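Ticket #4471: structure export looks truncated?
Reporter: QA, pipeline team
Priority: medium

Steps to reproduce: submit the single chain below to the structure queue and open the exported record.
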Amino acid sequence: MSPYQGGTTPVLLDLDHQVAAASLWLGDAWKVSPHDSLVEELRVQFGDDSVRVEY
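Actual output as written to the record:
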């Protein structure tokens, strides 16, 4: 995500594992510009159902 840092959109990670689950807001330094290319790269890496953009 680092090429997209410096934007105004905060990032929330939802982690779900057999043993535990957690939601983690990344700090202000990780706010991004939500370009289509960022979303596509994340979907390729983590799967279509693992990436969501909410406005």
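Status: closed, not a bug. The export was complete when the record was re-opened. Leaving a note from the reviewer for reference: The chain has one domain: 2-46.
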